[in-house]
Amino acid sequence: MYNYIIGKVSIQENNYIVVENNGIGYTVYVANPFSFEENKESKVYVYNQIREDEYSLYGFKSLEERDLFLKLINVKGLGPKMAMPMLATGSIAGIMDAIDRENILYLTKFPKIGEKLARQIILDLKGKLARKEETNLTGSFDELVSVLESLGYKNSEIKKVLPKVNASLDIEAQIKEALKLMLK
What pTM does this model have? Predict the structure, then answer.
C-alpha cells in the first residue's frame, strides 16, 4: 500500500493529475486537480484501490482529507467515484459537521447523493469523525472527561469547557475547575 508520492505534477486534467516520480508517470485521481501546481514538486497522499478489473490511485493534499475519504468509501453504497466529488465541492469541516448535525439537505447537494444514501452516511459515520484538534485535547484530559461523563454531562458540553481548564493542575483541581465552568 502506498502512503504518498513525491513528484512533479506534469499533467492536470478535469479529474486527475499525473505525478512523475523517477521517470514514471502515475495517474492519480484527485478532487481538485487545479489545486496542485503544474511542473512543481508536490507531496500527494494516496489511496490505491485494487479490484479485479481496475487498479486506481486516488490522491489528496492532506492526511485529514484522505482519512475522510476512506471513511466515506466504507459507507454502504458509496464508492470512490462518488466520494471524490464530495471532497471537490465541499470542505472537510463542512462534510464532517453535516454528518455530526445530521444535515441531510447539505449532503444531498453533492452529485449522486440522494436522501437514502445521505441517511446511510449519517448512520455509518455520525460520532466517528473526530477532528485532530479535539482528539489531541481530549487525549490530555482522558481522566477528567471520564469523570465528567460519569456525572452525566454530555460530550458536547465537556468539549466546550476543556480548553478553559488548566492542564497543569492535578485531577481534583481540574474537576473543580471544570464543574465551575459547567455551572456558568
Answer: 0.69
